[in-house]
Amino acid sequence: MERMNSLAVVAEGVRKHYGGAPALDGFDLAVPEGTVCGLLGPNGAGKTTAVRVLTTLLRADAGRAVVAGFDVAARPAEVRYRIGLAGQNAAVDEILTGRENLEMWGRLYHLDAATARRRAGELLDRFGLAADAEKRVKHYSGGMRRRLDLAAAFVLAPSVLFLDEPTTGLDPRNRDEVWQAVRELAASGSTVLMTTQYLFEADQLAHQIAVIDAGRVIADGSPDELKSMVGGDQIDLVVRDAAGLAEAARVLAAAAGRDPVADPGARRLTAPVHDRIGALTEVVRELGERGIAVEDVALRRPTLDEVFLSLTGERTARAEEGGHGEEDRAA
Amino acid sequence: MTTLIAPVIPRSRLQRLRWTFADGGVIARGNLIHLVRNPSAILNLLLYPAVMVLLFGYVFGSAMNVAGGGDYREFLMPGMFAQTMTLGVMTTMIIVTNDAARGVTDRFRSMPISRSGVVLGRACADMVNSVLELAVLLGCGLAVGWSWHRGAGNALTALGLLLLLRFALIWVGIYLGLMLTPESASAAWMPLMPLTMLANTFVSPELMPGWMGAISEWNPLSATVAACRELFGNPGWGGDSWAAAHALPLAVAWPVALTLVFLPLSARRYRRLDR
Ligand SMILES: Nc1ncnc2c1ncn2[C@@H]1O[C@H](COP(=O)(O)OP(=O)(O)O)[C@@H](O)[C@H]1O
Ligand SMILES: [Mg+2]
């Protein structure tokens, strides 16, 4: 019981069938209070189903879930006082202005008119929407809608916030705005459970990443732990001259603590590293001192595909995200 | 920096009841703002009845006969009133499906909000909407020469019966809306439109082929239409069948029966959204 008090979300062996294959198949999760947990998985992995069970929207077939100290099945009303939900679609009203939307949600959370108005003003400021507060939401960008939706979920400053794919479908600029909003929510002390299909997004925002596949968590830990589990970041090195390959391999091996994989045809060396920047600096300095000319050197994070490859040994079907490896490189 | 807001938890039954009305008020208000700000909704509201009255009153009307004689436009208006009330089920259904698709229903269900308040708000907004539609139609009717002939009391009773039908259909709309997607809800025009005509709305059932006439006599809509014709003193009411002879009690019984069936069904459906 002692331990339970410091956990904002606990799920144990949660199962849910919709008829066919199970959507959740023994889902386990523990999220400490005041942290951000990224629930990472491909389409159809069961992320939304997990969020729906935890937010009292869906009754699990088996297992147990406790949110903010209350069992979701036995005490749903208590849970609802303590959570906020921003679902996969922004539940904003297009015809109303941003301010009217927030005032409406405030009234529905039973704030009196004056408090609802004050709270709407605060949230608009906080989520960078003050300048557009009097515009109707139909004129908002995708990122603005998302931020308004996050603000609506945050009206009562709930102790646990659930965000289901808050950046899916947004361009990078809008996505960065939403990231900022999520950081804002986390900084205020709420526990945040967000789902995502992007490793780099979970890496940016979360203290803890739980990888979900076919309805169960297959890996769970800090971003660093997860990356070391799957081999961590890699240094990719291309030397200008094939003659320098052997010596460069020795340099890289010293920094990485293991022998690099060599592709002599491309004059390329690859080695996983733990101390990312330290290792990169060391390698670059050593190569410079030894006078080995380098054509390209880069730190590369494993993509979600690679995470899944090493965790499940299967490549997941993720047709629509062809370009996200680039993002990993840039992040 | 952070303003922590303590959740307000209702303590007494009275407070919970107050919540229900407060939530209903907020939701109804939001829906009415939609009506006011959405030009196409207003246009629909004003234009659709006007076009229908002109189309049926003048284009088809010249070819129409009223069983037992009488002016066709006098005969037509009660049919128009009741058809508009019936088609209101589309409004309810589409709003309910849209709320579900936008995630609004999910957020409501994740909140400590009064469930009956949500429904109450929906019902209030729909009723206000229907009163406005009815007012516009009454204006159209008066403009084309329709009127009531049996006193204000009977006329108000007729309007009450029309709104009773609309009220019953709110529950049908919520029930269907909780089961359908927005696309299939919009497609419900297809079966619904003919069903509102397979009644005594535009043509007397006596003038239809036998089997069709029988269905039309028993259409719940026909009871309301016939009762309104009777109460307004418009031509074309009464008839040989039992249904036609008992239009007034049937115009009460049908909506009450619909409500008794669909109100619990929709409440159950809502509770079972967590399955
Ligand atoms: N309402 C539903 N009816 C039937 N199957 C569903 C329903 N919702 C989800 N599923 C199925 O459950 C699995 C998990 O879905 P979901 O939780 O939505 O995954 P994710 O959010 O990770 O994309 C999928 O195979 C999906 O097809
Ligand atoms: Mg999902």
Distance between the termini of chain B: 40 Å
- Which residues of chain A form runs of ≥5 with pLDDT under 50? 315-331
- What summary fits the major beta sheet of chain B? none
What is the CATH level 1 assignment of the largest domain in chain A?
Alpha Beta
Number of strands of chain B: 0
Strand arrangement, major sheet of chain A: 6-7-8-3-9-10
Average per-residue pLDDT of chain A, rounded, comes to 87
How much helix, percentage-wise, in residues of chain B?
A: over 70%
Oligomer: heterodimer
What does this structure look like?
The complex is a heterodimer of chains A (331) and B (275). By secondary structure, chain A is an alpha/beta fold. Chain A folds into 2 domains: 7-227, 3-Layer(aba) Sandwich (Rossmann fold), CATH 3.40.50; 233-300, Alpha-Beta Plaits. Chain A is built from 13 helices and 14 strands. In chain A, the strands form 3 sheets. Chain A has a 6-stranded mixed beta sheet, sandwiched between helices. In chain A, strand 1 and strand 2 (22-32) form a beta hairpin. In chain A, helix 6 (142-153) runs parallel beside helix 7 (172-187). Chain A is globular and about 75 Å long. The two termini of chain A are 40 Å apart. Chain B has one domain (23-274). Chain B has helices spanning 13-37, 39-60, 72-102, 104-109, 115-143, 151-177, 182-186, 189-197, 210-218, 220-232, 242-245, 247-271. By secondary structure, chain B is mostly helical. Chains A and B meet through strand 6, helix 4 and helix 5 of A and helix 1 and helix 4 of B. Bound molecules: adenosine-5'-diphosphate and magnesium ion.
